[in-house]
Design a protein that fits this description.
By secondary structure, the protein is mainly α. The chain is built from seven helices and no strands. The longest helix is centred in the middle third of the chain and has 17 residues.
């Protein structure tokens, strides 16, 4: 699926499901249905999970939090940390210390 390839290469991409639908020639409902069928979640949730997985890769590469935040499309380091905590239950620094 071109959407997955594009977001894997550029997780900061801010296109909405509606914009992707126009780009790939399908309806947003069809795309969301495909995400639910293939991944057990809608597009937005899948994209959030992708960003968290990418953040783990970057954290393990000793990249600074500010660079990770902007690489993944967050507006600030604080927004990245908040999202990280929401999904993993701890801050990126604590995650690194525990692993």
């Amino acid at each position: 699926m071109p959407i997955i390839e594009a977001l894997n290469q550029e997780p900061a991409n801010k296109l909405t499901i509606e914009q992707w639908a126009v780009k790939v020639g399908a309806s947003s409902r069809t795309l969301n249905r495909l995400f639910n069928q293939n991944y057990g979640m809608g597009f937005s949730r899948w994209k959030q999970k992708l960003r968290i997985l990418k953040s783990l890769e970057l954290l393990n590469s000793n990249i600074q939090l500010i660079d990770i935040a902007f690489e993944l499309g967050y507006e600030s380091t604080s927004a990245f940390i908040t999202s990280f905590k929401k999904h993993l239950g701890c801050s990126p620094k604590r995650y690194l210390a525990q692993n």
